[in-house]
Amino acid sequence: MSIVVRNLTHIYMPGTPFESIAIKDINWEIADGEFWGLIGHTGSGKSTLIQHLNGLLKPTSGEIIIDGENLHARGARMKEIRQKVGLVFQYPEHQLFEETVERDVAFGPKNMGLPEDEVAKRVKEAIELVGLPYDAVKDKSPFELSGGQMRRVAIAGVLAMNPEVLILDEPTAGLDPLGRDEIIEEIVALRKKRNITVILVSHSMEDIARLVDKIAVMHRGKMIKQGSSREIFRDYRGLTSVGLGIPQITELMMKLREKGKDVACDILTVEEARTEILKAIRRKGSA
Question: What pTM value is reported for the model?
Answer without folding.
Answer: 0.91
